[in-house]
């Protein structure tokens, strides 16, 4: 009898169990994957044009200040992300989700700050906000994600996340450059902000999931299969 059969008290071959598990990820993983992909797809619209925008359209902007702005983001993110990850490790999913949504909110603000920026200090502010946001978002997202990976499918789910993120970045890098060329930089940042907001709204859906003992309950479709189909045959 397979592990599925032992757990549920039903007869199920290992091949049948493996086939079922391959079909879908659990709800928490799907929320995290979709929300993260949409958010960073939105940010990808502005990534390839930001340095040009700073050098050509911002007071005090040049290649050097564009580099300083980029370094500012990475330094702030690193100083927050590393110690904050220890905090996430020591707390439950409820706290991690709270900080995930705070980080998401700060990330969503970033393209809108770019949109209204007319001086390099606005760009520096945007990079600080972005660094703080990712510093909170990344450990929280990784903490929830790693705690809800489907057993035996960890490599597949990590690879799916990396592959989808890569495809999203590739598409938006081209799209962002084209939109900026024909519709303008500020419209591109506005669109990026709207897409990030949609991605953040998806992650908010996690707050509506059931919580037990401080952990978001993972209910894959196999839960539905057991509850609705197997029991209906009894």
How would you explain this protein's 3D organization?
There is one protein chain. The chain has 234 residues and is mostly helical. Helices cover 78% and strands 2% of the residues. The protein is built from ten helices and two strands, in the order αααααααααββα. It has a two-stranded antiparallel ribbon. Helix 3 (27-46) runs antiparallel to helix 9. The radius of gyration is 21 Å and the shape is globular. Residues 1-23 and 220-234 have low confidence and may be disordered.
Key descriptive features of the protein:
single chain, 234 residues, mainly alpha, two-stranded antiparallel sheet, 10 helices, 2% strand, globular, disordered N terminus, disordered C terminus
Describe, in short, the structure shown.
The protein is mostly helical and 234 residues long.
Order of helices and strands: HHHHHHHHHEEH
Give the terminus-to-terminus CA distance: 19 Å
Strand content: under 5%
Q: Would you count the extended β strands for me?
A: 2
Helical content stands at over 70%
The helix count comes to: 10
Q: What would the principal axes of the Cα set say about the shape?
A: globular
């Amino acid at each position: 009898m397979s592990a599925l059969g032992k757990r549920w008290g039903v007869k199920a071959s290992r091949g049948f169990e493996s086939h079922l598990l391959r079909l879908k990820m659990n709800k928490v993983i799907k929320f995290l994957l979709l929300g993260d992909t949409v958010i960073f797809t939105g940010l990808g619209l502005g990534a390839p044009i930001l340095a040009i925008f700073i050098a050509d359209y911002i007071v005090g902007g040049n290649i050097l200040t564009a580099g300083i702005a980029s370094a500012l983001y990475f330094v702030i993110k690193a100083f927050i992300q590393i110690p904050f990850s220890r905090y996430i490790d020591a707390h439950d999913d409820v706290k991690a989700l709270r900080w995930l949504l705070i980080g998401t909110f700060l990330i969503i603000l970033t393209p809108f700050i770019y949109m209204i920026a007319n001086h390099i200090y606005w760009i520096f502010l945007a990079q600080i906000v972005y660094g703080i946001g990712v510093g909170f978002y990344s450990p929280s997202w990784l903490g929830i994600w790693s705690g809800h990976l489907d057993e035996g499918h960890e490599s597949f789910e990590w690879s799916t996340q990396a592959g989808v993120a890569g495809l999203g970045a590739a598409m938006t890098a081209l799209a962002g450059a084209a939109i900026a060329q024909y519709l303008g930089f500020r419209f591109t940042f506005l669109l990026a902000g709207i897409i990030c907001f949609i991605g953040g709204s998806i992650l908010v859906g996690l707050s509506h999931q059931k919580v037990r003992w401080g952990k978001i309950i993972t209910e894959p479709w196999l839960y539905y299969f057991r509850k609705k189909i197997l029991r209906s045959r009894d």
